[in-house]
Amino acid sequence: MAPPPIYLSLVKTVRRRIQKRSAALAVAATSLLATAVAVAPAGLARAGNARPATAAATTSTTAICTAPTAHAALAAKLSRDIAYAIRGRSGHIAIRVEDVKTGVECRYNEGSRSHAASVVKVTILAALLYWKKTPTALTTKEKYEATLMIEQSDNAAATYLWNDVGHTRLNQFVTAATMTETILNSGGYWGLSQITARDELQQMRLLTEHNSVLSDSSRAYELYLMNHVVSWERWGVPTGAPSGLTVYVKNGWLNDPVLWVINSIGAIEGYGRDYKMAILTYSNPGEQYGINTVNAIAKVANSDLNAGLPAAGTALAPATLPRSQQGQPDEVLPKGAH
Fold first, then answer.
1. What average pLDDT score do residues 159-168 get?
2. Are 299 and 240 in contact (CB under 8 A)?
3. Fewest beta carbons within 10 Å, which of 9, 64, 160, 164?
4. Per the domain annotation, does 39 fall within a domain?
């Protein structure tokens, strides 16, 4: 028996109301998600000491990388790939990437401060070269310690040159370099200096481009050392870069005091490439965990920025820490110094 007409009319009315209510809820949810996406990165991008527990999984992919119109598609792809690489990762992540050839620039929490760990060794040597004007003015002892400090990340060498240059001259270089967010540690613990991805990218500009702060010979001297870092410390920025390119890198790793700071800065040149990166992370639950995060970011950046360019060798695999190096911070801190 067919239902009465009044019953059918009632059913249709209820269905229409349910459909309208569902649509309204969907719109509201979309609006709320969009608001969260827009607000979350802004609160993390300020230079300061706030340390969120996890990376922002709801970051806006279109906001990470930008580029001139001709390379907008590349910027959009790199934005998506970086967002995927960091999605769900524990710890705080800050990224700055700049490609001179395409104009692609990536920014993610670039102004939030992190402890430097051993990437500050690049600043120590740059300050020494800024003071001495040219590498030929360095003493035999300074050259010896500089080589150990950059190529092997030797801590005793870093402490020697930190004291050799002195806090005043170190700060004079930072000021001249317009690294306005960097705060060098005043207590002698160079690894606890505070840096930002934005400032570290600026430092890589000074090392790779002609400027009035560092002489060309000084830049070439430091870049040579950064190109000859020992193999087991060549993780981070080099990961995924074609093997035929020239790679400059300095990494840092520090348990601060329990969770790990894992940083990587550097630049890549050759075969029409000219780009640089600064990837800073902290509150990583483990050393290798943080290295994996940094490697994942560098890998997608190297892959995307090399797409469509002349072949330059196979992609470099992530470097593996020797067992003797695993779990060893690059600066031993006294209890409570963090």
1. 98
2. yes
3. 9
4. no
